[in-house]
Design goal:
Chains: A mainly alpha (about 375), B alpha/beta (about 170), C alpha+beta (about 375)
Number of domains of chain A: 1
Helix content of chain A: 55-70%
Number of strands of chain B: 9
Distance between the termini of chain A: 27 Å
Strand content of chain B: 25-35%
CATH superfamily of the largest domain in chain B: NADH:ubiquinone oxidoreductase Nqo5 subunit
Structural class of chain A: mainly alpha
Number of helices of chain B: 3
Largest sheet of chain A: 2 strands, antiparallel
Helix content of chain B: 10-25%
Oligomer: heterotrimer
Mean pLDDT of chain B: 83
Radius of gyration of chain B: 19 Å
Shape of chain A: globular
Low-confidence stretches of chain B: none
Radius of gyration of chain A: 22 Å
Largest interface: B-C, 32 and 42 residues
Order of helices and strands of chain B: HEEHEEEEHEEE
CATH topology of the largest domain in chain B: Beta Polymerase, domain 2
Distance between the termini of chain B: 68 Å
Strand content of chain A: under 5%
Shape of chain B: elongated
CATH architecture of the largest domain in chain B: 2-Layer Sandwich
Number of helices of chain A: 15
Largest sheet of chain B: 5 strands, mixed
Mean pLDDT of chain A: 83
Amino acid sequence: MWTGDIMFANAYELIVFILNFIGIYEPINNIFKTLGIEYVLRIIIVFIEIAVLLVFALLTIMFLTWMERKVVAMVQARYGPMVTGPRGLLQPVMDGIKLIGKEDIIPAKADRWVFTLAPFLVFIPALLIFIPLPFGESLIISDLKVGLLYLIAISALSPIAILLAGWSSNNKYSLMGAMRAVAQDISYTIPLALSAIAIVLFTGSLSTVDIVTAQNGTWFGFIPKWFIFLQPLGFILFLIASIAEMGRIPFDFQESEQELVAGFFTEYSGIKFAMFFLAEYAHLFSVSAIVVTLFLGGWSFPILPYLPAVLVPLVSFVVFLVKTYAVIFFAMWLRHTVPRVRIDQLLNLGWKIMIPLALLNLLVTGFLLTVGVFK
Amino acid sequence: MNPAEEIKQLFPDSVVSVGQQIKKPLAIIKKEGLLEVAQKVKEMGFDNLSVITGIDYGDRFEVVYNFFSYVKKQNLVLKVVLGHENPEVASLASIWKVADWLERETYDLVGIKFRGHPNLKRILLPEGWMGHPLRKDYDMNVDQFVTIGEDGEDIVSTDGSNLLRR
Amino acid sequence: MKTDELLINMGPVHPSTHGVLRFKLTMDGEIIRNCEIVMGYLHRGTEKLGEMKTYMQFVPYTDRLDYISAFPNNYAYVKAVEELAGIEVPLRAEYIRVLTLELNRIVNHLVMIGSLLLDLGASTMIMYGFRERENALALFDMLCGARMTFNYIKPGGVREDMPEGFIPKLNEFINDMDMRIDDYEQLVSGNEIFMGRMKNIGVMSAQDAINYGMTGPSLRGHGVNYDIRKMEPYSVYPDLDFKACMRRECDSFARYMVRIDEMRESLHILKQVVDQMPQGKAETHAKYGIAPMTGAPTAVSTYFPRIFTPPPGEVYSRIEAPKGELGFYIVSDGTIKPYRIKIRSPSFCNLTAIPKMVEGLMIPDLIAAFGTIDVVLGDVDR
């Protein structure tokens, strides 16, 4: 039975264990040692990890675009894509082929290099967030000691890339859209960080694996010890702030076609446009994964202690995916139910309501911990 | 009492005649006295100006104003007869704001000018259009080509030369 | 240090201007200081065309004015012609006309609510609204063979009588719609974000609204109880029991709620019409291919010729279209073609109020207020 201890510190050690189990690790390692370049093996294993992660990430993003269209269709009482592939599952592939085939237009007076660079600068941080996320028990690329801080810091990189995209388009509307997007991003990073910090008061460590293991176990035998029950206000604030960070409806004004054509990516076409979209879905997945890690227990689930230790990584991975997709489904459902919030109402909400509430949350949590209500 | 009769009593020298237009009281006004009569009509409670129609009979123009009063539930029709050369009449845009665009439309399509109008420009047709279409002597065999310029304003020409862009 | 004013163009092709309409906005930061509207992109010269067609031939042109609600357009023109020529219409035809008018009112309000919410970002409502609209358009298809431009109401009656099986389907539609309107209210009207976007936006006093020529449901949202069906009743409305819906708050939310109330009242009227429908003939014999008959009208039908000459004169008649007061001013000189037709369209006159209403608002508010005025460009430009 699984004892509740983490088996491997990260995926690197898991792969080394598997290679040892098959029996090929030692021979290959010896070959490299005799050549004097044993670090090459380590690099190869890391590349394998990253390749697996990238394949997973890209497949997930493609699946999310399909899922979005199907969820929209279900809410709006119609079918979604049904023609391409069985139940429309090949639709993202077809969309990708179509977008690759489009003409790559760069406006005449735009700054060429920055214009080309900006979509990548938006996409890469969304992928970087995947690194400290625990996908399952011992399935983590790198268990950073400052995992939570890293996550918040990488999220804060996106305003820069958005400004680059808006500025280099040489278009009045793009620039206005980019500035509004930046205003929205920075005003919602603060409540996001503040509500996440309250979690740290419970675990005493910023590492994501520690946060998940602190949520192992149950009260009364059946209520899991997830932080959502200890921090309901923090959960709500974090969820709203992350939906606002991502720029989804109801906080969607930077992409509202009805107002400023398409905001900061008006001038983009073809594969560059596709990268902004992929970045948005990657962001959606990663932010939902963060929500699950912090508040919904990550990969932990009450039945895990009753399983044999070999099955635990697999089952925990499935549990993690189910929880993440539940949060994603909620975000998609919300998107198609409520209208958009106006920009000044949005900034009002962020600065005047959410920051005081987050601070209050922090204060009350700290007080209760000091007094000794939570052991 | 019939509102048209009331106006005839108050402004006897402006009113040419009083009658009926299929159950609505009608008063024909001289064009010089229109503004005063209109002020009085507003005070009498006719706060809804429904429509301003310009009609081109071959030898004269007529402008017809239809009013309705929400309070008294009465109708009133005023008509002004103008000569055929340079038809011009006082503008009611200062009393009823809806007259602003209705008069612009009448100017645009029929060619009647309104004195004192804040912004008498064409409204439905592009700025450079030649002629007033709803006149009976408008030549419909002349083609006019319209395209949109760099600054968003319309360019009109009769020979299509503005359609070729370099 | 002072700031410059920015000229922003919400150009003719724009997702939320409901057609080709151009706003030239002078903005100070985010606030609109001045709004100038440029229209005419859809001008088709309907009034000039009217002078070249006979009275019966002009009816299809009226369909294309406000293409969302084509029956009231037809009816306004036909009512004016009937007043001018003194034509009597059989009672059954009047009831069928009122049925189509009220059904079209429901359709129009569904489209308005759907596109208003689409502009605000909630794309679900337009899908639900169009699903109901499909049912109504199937009814219209059954009645007159067309879904959008009907050409059904003609001087003297209607073109054809109702087919069999129409009334049961209509009853199904009415029952369905009753439940759906409650759904819509729950989904939309109570939503905090929606109320925050619509309350106290686009406020205009009632006197200003009347002065700027606003009529119809937009005006009734300002507390002015002006409904032509009550003030100058026409057709069979005096025999029907309904109330004119009014709200007092003068803002966009009030204008929106008036339309929800009106949809319910229209359903109420439809039920009464179905109950009170008299038997008898409803057609006018102006169908294509049938030789024109001249003769005195009988008690149950009007055999009406395709080409007729009303006496010389002028008439202005108005009806309560779903968007406001739709009126036709017709001048006849005793020939088979009218001398002048002037169309008083509700969207054109409601639009005059927009520049005053949006001063001091932001662009999202302009879109919300503009959506509640319910403008269709076919009506504005004619």
